[in-house]
Amino acid sequence: MANSVVSIPPDLIEIARNAKHIVVLTGAGVSAESGVPTFREAQTGLWAQYDPQELATPQAFQRNPRLVWEWYEWRRELVAKAQPNPGHLALVKMEETVPQLTLITQNVDGLHQRAGSRNIIELHGSIIRTKCFDQGHIVTSWAATDEVPPRCPQCDSLLRPDVVWFGEGLAYDALSAAISAAQNCDLFLAVGTSAIVQPAASLPLEAAQRRTPTVEINPQATPISRYMDFVLSGPSGQVLPELTRTAWE
Ligand code: OAD
To answer: Does ligand 1 lie within 6 Å of residue 220's CB atom?
Structure first.
């Protein structure tokens, strides 16, 4: 592609073609081109406009459950209107092409699923699922009510989104599957993540420590850039399709 945003190094093409298990870690940047705001970018990031301590902690929910519920309702509507972009679709193509692909996402927007990716580990949960605050019952429907948030049909506690908030632990199964994938792959891609939030940010380093080839795809440098074998500086909606095209078409 003559005017492509980034050229894929021949060494990387060779590694990708020979890879038996690729692990991809995605962050909010992969959905940016779908119009879903990221978290940490100055001006446009959600955490530049909203205080996570008021919206994304268990304490915030206990203080003001209505505010938190309504904020997530707004985000749910926003992601429902968004469409997967060429970056999401390139990852579907990659999964169809390589023997094994594990997609570890920090995103809660469900866009990888809607694009058609299948082997997904949702490290930070899903905004589309609802659970109850006290018991963690996963709830798919509840009685019509004026109360905001509504209550769990099983235990009557307040409902909340099934996402991981600051101060909460990640689901054990998801985290251990993600660590095991990072330790047992032959190519690791970190895409659209600021690589600041732990433990997700340590996954690319887990691979790097084992001398597994690592790639970062991001228009900006991050704290992990210097540990990556390849840094492809550009938007994932352009770089990922270019990578799949050059490696496998
Ligand atoms: P951030 O908002 O921290 O970082 C987004 C990254 O995407 C930045 O490094 C941008 O440079 C990059 N980016 C922007 N546009 C891009 C594009 N078109 N293509 C590729 N990259 C692009 O988002 P995360 O790293 O996902 O946690 O944040 C991690 C966690 O922090 C989130 O899962 C969320 C948040 O608090 C929870 O909700 C639990």
So the answer is: yes
Percent of the chain with pLDDT over 90: 90
Report CA-CA distances (Å) from 159 to 47, 59, 137, 167, 172: 23, 14, 9, 18, 22
pLDDT at 27 over 90: yes
CA of 25 relative to ligand 1 center, distance in Å? 11
Q: Write out the residue range of the structural domain in which residue 147 sits.
A: 37-81+128-163
**What are the pLDDT digits (tens) for 143-199?**
899 999 999 999 999 999 999 999 999 999 999 999 999 999 999 999 999 999 999
| 49 and 156 belong to one structural domain | yes
Question: What's the confidence (pLDDT) of residue 3?
Answer: 52
Cβ atoms of 101 and 26 within 8 Å: the answer is no
CA 28 to centroid of ligand 1, rounded, Å: 4
Q: Are 15 and 213 in contact (CB under 8 A)?
A: yes
Q: Is 174 in the pocket of ligand 1 (CB under 6 A)?
A: no
**Domain match, 102 and 77 both:** no
Look at the block and give the residue holding tokens 């770089």.
239
- What value does the mean pLDDT of the chain take? 95
How is residue 109 annotated by DSSP? S
Domain count, the chain: 2
Rounded to an integer, what distance in angstroms lies between the CA atom of residue 203 and that of residue 118? 20
- C-alpha 157/C-alpha 178 separation (Å) is 31
